């Protein structure tokens, strides 16, 4: 792709990293607006990443928080080097499609914790794709000030010359709300979390929460196995389900409201002996905050209270990767009947 002469000098400078990506705010419904006001994209369950190609064709694949991902996902690095023009930056999602046709976040996690040599081996047996959904720079030209609709047109032109069956893929987008609603109602069966909704005329403002994310959620039951906070004012619940007779931890709730805390506190009975969970949870426990490095102290309780929770599609082997929302106690449900669920949310 030819570069205008007045951009060549600018393109010779190295692109500074890390680059701060644009973010989204959670919403509970489709936003109002006339047709064409909003652009809708599937919210893929993967690793947010920026593909940065310097003027000397050096490639830097960066996570949302600025970490280097070149060695973790070498196939993305090589595809960016081979197919993307110098002086360009693309925003997208690294995803893995399992042989069953579902998004497979656990394979991305395996890559993330593997050493460089093992990550290269995993790339051969569990390859990933980079689904590009935005363009920040093209051939040395900063396009963040252009409306999304124009950036999208440039991105589509760029991908017209990239092999369709390769590592790099053009993310889906539509301006048709009816089509977006059909995606929302159907794509959860393959692990798509919901939709990212963007003003069609918006510029790209790194770090700003100018986009919206609408997650598909459903209610489910879980058994309370512990809590954080005080017995009179628990601030969060630790949840489990039974799997072949074993009480497994599956997640935690978001911060409880004062009303919710008052509702559940009298229903919690401290456990003294025989609780299957450790007294202190290690870093990396289920649904722990990203980057948590300290163990978690909590109070174990007898697993005899069932609660209804609001969940999304982000699960891994029956565990909720994101904190879930507490809805209400289910004192009418026998805890022994709350068993592990498959990852697919129906």
Brief rundown of the structure:
By secondary structure, the chain is of the alpha+beta class.
Structural features, described:
- The protein is of the alpha+beta class and 346 residues long.
- It folds into two domains: 194 residues, D-amino Acid Aminotransferase, Chain A, domain 1, CATH 3.30.470.30; 120 residues, Nucleic acid-binding proteins (OB fold (Dihydrolipoamide Acetyltransferase, E2P), Beta Barrel), CATH 2.40.50.
- Helix content is 19%, strand content 31%.
- It has seven helices and 20 strands.
- Strands 3, 4, 5, 6, 7 and 8 form a six-stranded mixed beta sheet that branches. Strands 11, 12, 13, 16, 17 and 20 form a six-stranded antiparallel beta sheet that branches.
- A hairpin with a 2-residue loop joins β12 and β13.
- The longest helix has 12 residues.
- It is globular.
- The two termini are 45 Å apart.
- The N terminus is likely disordered.
Q: Which key phrases capture this entry?
A:
D-amino Acid Aminotransferase, Chain A, domain 1, globular, 20 strands, disordered N terminus, alpha+beta, about 350 residues, six-stranded mixed sheet, OB fold (Dihydrolipoamide Acetyltransferase, E2P), single chain
Can you give the mean pLDDT? 89
**SSE-based structural type:** alpha+beta
CATH topology category name of the largest domain: D-amino Acid Aminotransferase, Chain A, domain 1
CATH class of the largest domain: Alpha Beta
Percentage of residues assigned to helices: 10-25%
DSSP, total strands: 20
CATH architecture of the largest domain: 2-Layer Sandwich
Number of helices: 7
Low-confidence stretches: 1-13
Calculate the terminal CA-CA distance, rounded to whole Å: 45 Å
Secondary-structure element series: HEEEEHEHHEEHEHEEEEEHEEEEEEE
Major sheet attributes: 6 strands, mixed
Q: Which homologous superfamily in CATH is the superfamily of the largest domain?
A: DNA ligase/mRNA capping enzyme
Count of distinct structural domains: 2
* Rg, alpha carbons: 23 Å
Shape: globular
Strand content: 25-35%
